[in-house]
């Protein structure tokens, strides 16, 4: 497939080097919507959904959509088990560059047990002693040759499910080699990342509404989404004026801050099969748009398309997503996108 880029223009970035979780999980739907008690036994059933971790999801979409000539290089570990071997095979099949993925002996691949209530809410339990726990700053440092190879022409991506210190080292390497640096944090770690000075290391901070709420310390549940986003922008401006922000809020759409202006984007009306992984798909789309030469607001449109298309699959990676598939999705869903985005899909 030809590389993704704006017609008549050179692609801005030629590679993405990322660190984060590589693993899988299971979805279990509980009976009844009341919150599971500490000592309660509850019936339910496993759902037929393939679950993947954040780095794998984002990397899959970036490589698939960017096409040949673009190198997506995940940095991480899996265990020496059937799950790890299956994930490696799937990642190779997607065209990812696997030279920075190692197999850890006597350790299991990262696994999450996701429980879902009938109303769609839920949570997850994730192993903390998996192969991903062995991804250290020193391990990330070993990928310095990849940064040197793509000096000034790459994206550095740091996402959850490995230690914050390892993610920091990747962002530092990105800064030292003139990479565009993107990152996300879970709701439980965003305050710590802020306290430890991570925000100035980031060019694009990707948040969902709950993460934005934690960042601006908004504890009132009835606060309007737009107010939370505006407060988040203020916090980021005080910490790092040059950092861009994207905030996703499900059916409420998303927001983008480009350092000067805040813009809201509506969410396409689609009948979602599962929203799991949609935020990661959205981030992948934004990064693809930026890599191909779009401005942030246009890249946000592209991310919205990818994220919206992803919810049509029960799995956290929709393996049917492609540029041609996105073109059809625009036609069928009635999405209004800019000419730049349509030209990008046609490239």
SSE blueprint and pairings:
Layout: E1 15-19, E2 23-30, E3 44-52, H1 54-66, E4 71-79, H2 82-93, E5 101-104, E6 110-116, E7 122-126, H3 137-141, H4 144-149, E8 154-158, H5 164-176, E9 180-184, H6 190-195, E10 204-208, H7 209-215, H8 225-239, E11 244-248, E12 254-257, E13 262-265, H9 278-292, H10 296-310, H11 323-333, H12 339-345
Helix pairs in contact: 1-9, 7-8, 9-10
Could you explain how this protein is built, in words?
With 347 residues, this protein is α/β, with parallel strands linked by helices. It is built from twelve helices and 13 strands. The strands form two sheets. A nine-stranded mixed β-sheet has the order 5-4-1-8-9-10-11-12-13, sandwiched between helices. The chain has a four-stranded mixed β-sheet with strand order 3-2-6-7. The longest helix has 15 residues, at 225-239. The model has no long low-confidence stretch (mean pLDDT 92).
* Element-by-element helix/strand order: EEEHEHEEEHHEHEHEHHEEEHHHH
Radius of gyration: 19 Å
The strand line-up of the biggest sheet is 5-4-1-8-9-10-11-12-13
Roughly what is the average pLDDT, rounded to an integer? Answer: 92
Q: Tally the beta strands.
A: 13
Structural class: alpha/beta
> Low-confidence stretches at least 5 residues in length (pLDDT < 50)?
none
Q: Name the helicity range.
A: 25-40%
Shape: globular
- Strand % is 15-25%
How many H/I helical runs?
12
Report the sheet with the most strands, covering strand number, pairing sense and barrel closure.
Answer: 9 strands, mixed
First and last CA, distance: 10 Å
């Amino acid at each position: 497939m030809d590389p993704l880029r704006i017609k008549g223009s050179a692609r801005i970035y030629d590679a993405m080097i990322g660190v984060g979780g590589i693993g899988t999980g299971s979805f279990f739907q509980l009976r009844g919507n009341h919150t599971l008690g500490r000592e309660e036994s509850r019936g339910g059933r496993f759902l037929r959904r393939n679950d993947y971790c954040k780095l794998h999801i984002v990397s899959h979409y970036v490589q698939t959509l960017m096409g040949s000539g673009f190198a997506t290089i995940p940095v991480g570990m899996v265990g020496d088990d059937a799950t790890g071997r299956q994930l490696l095979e799937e990642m190779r099949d997607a065209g990812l560059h696997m030279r920075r993925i190692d197999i850890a002996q006597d350790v299991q691949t990262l696994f999450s047990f996701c429980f879902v209530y009938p109303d769609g809410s839920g949570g997850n339990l994730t192993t903390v002693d998996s192969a991903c726990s062995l991804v250290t700053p020193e391990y990330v440092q070993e990928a310095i040759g990849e940064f040197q190879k793509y000096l000034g022409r790459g994206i550095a991506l740091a996402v959850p499910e490995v230690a914050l210190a390892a993610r920091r080292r990747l962002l530092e390497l990105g800064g030292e080699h003139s990479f565009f640096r993107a990152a996300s944090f879970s709701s439980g770690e965003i305050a710590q990342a802020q306290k430890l000075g991570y925000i100035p290391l980031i060019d694009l901070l990707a948040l969902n509404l709950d993460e934005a709420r934690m960042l601006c310390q908004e504890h009132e549940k009835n606060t309007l989404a737009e107010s939370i986003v505006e407060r988040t922008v203020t916090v980021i401006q005080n910490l790092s004026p040059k950092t861009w922000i994207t905030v996703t809020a499900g059916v409420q759409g998303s927001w983008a801050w480009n350092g000067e202006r805040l813009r809201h984007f509506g969410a396409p009306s689609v009948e979602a099969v599962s929203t799991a992984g949609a935020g990661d798909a959205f981030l992948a789309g934004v990064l693809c748009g930026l890599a191909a030469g779009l401005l942030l607001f246009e890249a946000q449109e592209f991310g919205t398309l990818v994220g919206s298309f992803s919810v049509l699959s029960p799995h956290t990676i929709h393996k049917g997503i492609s540029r041609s598939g996105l073109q059809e999705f625009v036609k069928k869903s009635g999405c209004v996108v800019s000419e730049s985005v349509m030209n990008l899909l046609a490239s």
